[in-house]
Design a protein that fits this description.
456 residues; 4-stranded mixed sheet; 14 helices; 38% helix; globular; binds pyridoxal-5'-phosphate
């Protein structure tokens, strides 16, 4: 069906009347004016009126190769014409087998077994269920508690939302009771004035160890952590945090799940950030989003040989891993992911991220000079500006959802962001050029200045 401007009011009404969006505010859905994104090219998207915007968040941290790529859709079409669907339960397919092989070639250490899912939430869910399965088989039925962190986001299934730690999202929906323990915020920005970053790091690592000891190591199954907490506000823990946490986990036989749904596939300039950036080889990695550059849904949970050995052969006691989806390893998604990897290699996308990251971070950090900005932080092509009242006596008020105000100003100037309370986060398509980075930060700076004028 093609849409014309003449019936666009109908479309807007259908969306309001019949379409329940994720995280929909229920008080007055009609009051929220959504941008209808109808087209895109490179780092830009266009709305129904043909207005062009830089896509600051790359969709939802996912459109790595940018919009309008033809290789991925062509590979999908070819696969769909040849063989559109194969049951992963009873059969297999060369696209998903080849993709598992290509992923295993790029993962750190001995993470060589790939379980395909439909997205990030189901990847995290499957990782957690695999941990339960392994511990049950090993006779460790008591070892079930998952340690997560405040501000973490791991997904929207019952299990993955239960390990998510964003306070604002809690309370409306039920969560698994007694399963999860949350560690305090690991954001160095919120540390006490007298505390050094090194002291803060010690404290955060001690938080993990103390939690394990408090719960009892025999009851703790796994620690789950995003290398950088993405939708919690691009929280970059102090250098060395993940490595020291992994050491604590090893000491108490606690598995380490690294949730790379956002950081995987190039966001930090590597296929996976765990080893390359944070110097850890976790037990399980979850990924999604950038795996297909968002062109089609797919996720994966990648498991180490060590864990597979724990439950294989005689140790399996005849058990089956009874977890899976109709669309696990969907051939069309697998073909998209394979084409995506080819595009990354042909166009040297990882190298490009390394080349443009210094400018991105320089322009990002410079925003900290603005009076409204408390912290401007990031890593690779992930950034966040967090606003605050700068000094006592300042007239700037935090009663406003400042992120939304900045976003509204920037949208008028051609930049989409992701507002989160007093923050705006952004993670542009990885193909962004240096001139476009400058354009993006020029608009963002101006959006912050205009918001400041609104507030004083
Ligand atoms: N894990 C992380 C770190 C995420 O950021 C997200 C989504 O933003 C998820 C898991 C859930 O992924 P999905 O929305 O594909 O289910």
């Amino acid at each position: 069906m093609s849409l014309t401007n003449s019936n666009f009011d109908d479309v807007r009404n259908w969306d309001i009347e019949h379409h329940l969006h994720p995280w929909e505010g229920m008080e007055d859905p009609a009051a929220y004016e959504r941008t209808f994104v109808e087209g895109g090219e490179g780092i830009y998207v266009t709305n129904e009126a043909g207005e062009k915007f830089i896509d600051g968040p790359a969709g939802m941290w996912c459109v790595q190769v940018g919009y309008g790529n033809t290789d991925i859709p062509q590979a999908m079409a070819k696969q769909a014409l040849e063989m559109a669907y194969v049951s992963p339960f009873s059969n297999s397919n060369s696209a998903s087998a080849q993709l598992a092989h290509e992923i295993a070639k790029r993962t750190p250490g001995d993470l060589n077994t790939v379980f395909f899912t439909t997205g990030g939430s189901t990847a995290v869910d499957s990782a957690l269920r695999f941990v339960q399965f392994r511990n049950n088989l090993m006779g460790k039925r008591e070892k079930k508690v998952i340690i997560s962190r405040q501000k973490a986001y791991h997904g929207s299934t019952y299990l993955s939302s239960s390990v998510s730690g964003k306070e604002r999202d809690k309370g409306w929906l039920d969560q698994a009771e007694g399963l999860v323990y949350f560690l305090p915020n690991v954001n160095p920005y919120v540390r006490g004035k007298a505390q050094t970053v090194a002291e803060f790091l010690d404290e955060k690592v001690a938080d993990l160890e103390n939690a394990i000891l408090e719960i009892g190591p025999e009851k703790v199954a796994a620690f789950i952590a995003e290398p950088i907490l993405a939708s919690g506000g691009v929280i970059v823990p102090p250098k060395g945090y993940h490595k020291r946490c992994l050491e604590v986990c090893r000491k108490y036989d606690v598995l380490y799940i690294s949730d790379e749904v956002v950081t995987g596939f190039g966001r930090l300039g590597h296929w996976f950030a765990s080893e390359a950036v944070f110097d850890i080889v976790p037990d399980i990695i979850t990924c999604a989003k950038g795996l297909t550059s968002g062109y089609v849904p797919m996720g994966a949970c990648i498991i180490s040989d060590r864990l597979i050995e724990d439950i294989s052969g005689d140790a399996s006691k005849g058990a089956t891993f009874s977890n899976g989806f109709t669309y696990s390893g969907h051939p069309v998604s697998a073909a998209a992911a394979l084409a995506n990897i080819e595009v990354f290699e042909r166009d040297h996308i990882l190298e490009h991220v390394h080349k443009v990251t210094p400018l991105f971070l320089e322009r990002l950090h410079a925003l900290a000079e603005l009076p409204l900005v408390g912290d401007a932080r990031g890593e690779g092509l992930m950034g966040c500006v967090e606003c605050h009242v700068k000094a006592e006596g300042d007239q700037l008020s935090m009663d406003h959802e400042v992120g939304g105000m900045i976003d509204a100003h920037c949208a008028k100037m051609g930049l989409l962001l992701r507002p989160l309370i007093n923050m705006c986060v952004f993670s542009p398509p990885l193909v962004i050029e240096e001139a476009q980075i400058n354009q993006m930060f020029d608009i963002l700076g101006e959006g912050i200045r205009r918001t400041t004028d609104d507030l004083v």
